[in-house]
Amino acid sequence: MQGTDLVPSPIMTRHFHQSALLRHVLCFITLLTLLLSAAPRLEAATYYVAPTGNDTTGDGSVGNPWATIDHADFQNLLVPGDTVIVQAGTYPQANGDGVVLNNDGGTSGAPITYIANGKVVIDQSAFSGQSYGFQVQSPYIIVSRSEERRVG
Q: 145 and 85 in contact (C-beta within 8 Å)?
């Protein structure tokens, strides 16, 4: 069979084109899924913090809040326009630095806002010497209605 070329049958050609098309569609769907999962949030979100919350298992929802006011900032979870509702209660601080907001910043049109929902006390009574209640070091952060207390 010298010089004989193999000629694919019409069925084989159609199957090959369908398989190639299916591979392209699957690649497109995979790429689209990856892009959408990595895309930043377009909407502002509202998160919650409560003295009974948990920074390890909490997700920042009203039913499963975080425990520390600066948790979301520390973890770089906030984007411009987000709001953090701080539920009433006393928040003992882990060190003399207090609540430090220095990672996530807002914009002039979409600040990140921390709102106290009731009486919020930043308790730094465990620290002698200089201590800070709030240290806002990122741009366009609004802190509304909180109380800082040092006992002792």
A: no
